[in-house]
Every structure is written in structure tokens, then in C-alpha cells.
(2Fe-2S) ferredoxin domain-containing protein (Aerosakkonema funiforme FACHB-1375), 100 residues
Amino acid sequence: MAEPRCVLICQNRSCLNNSSAEVLTAFQAAEVPGVRVESSGCMGQCSSGPTVRIVPDETWYCRVKTSDVPEIVERHLIGGKLVEAKLNPRIHLRMEMFSS
Ligand code: FES
């Protein structure tokens, strides 16, 4: 059985200082069927937080604001497409290097 999708929102100090608690609340309020929303500890991307990681597809979004949440919900979680403008370039550049 496929692993259920989960949105992890960092609630450690640097991300909290940039309103990640409000981002967590916004994802929880969206209530997307089949998608869990969980708080997480530091994911090592503190300088570009709030960090949002979607598993199991391993999409990492950076500097996520509450105003970005509707687009991530509609486009990614419901529509299955990446929100390119919010991708964490440190993570996704690295993946592109290995996939070519
Ligand atoms: S504090 Fe959020 S990624 Fe480190």
C-alpha cells in the first residue's frame, strides 16, 4: 500500500520566528482528504524557513507564508503540480544534478 502523503511544517526556532505556527494552522485548516499535516522539528534549512516538506514525494518548499498555503494546497496537494516559485533551490538543485 502506498505511503499516505504528509505535509511536515517545521516548528523549530528559526522557522517559528518567521510565522511557521501560522503556516501550520493554515495547512491544518485546509483539510485536504488523504493528506496528513504534522509539525516537525528542524529540517536543516533554517536560513530559508519556514520549511515545508511534503512526503513521500520529497518536495521541499522554503520561505512559506500563510498567503502561499492556498496555492500549495490547490496546485500541489490537489492538482499534483509543483509550485516552482517556492521550491527550496538548495534541495531541488541537488536532486536535478543527480537525475541528469
Ligand atoms: S528551524 Fe526550521 S528548518 Fe531549521
User: Anything to note?
Assistant: The beta strands are 5-10, 35-40, 52-55, 59-61. The domain at 5-97 is CATH 3.40.30.10 (Glutaredoxin). The CA atoms of residues 8 and 38 lie 5 Å apart.
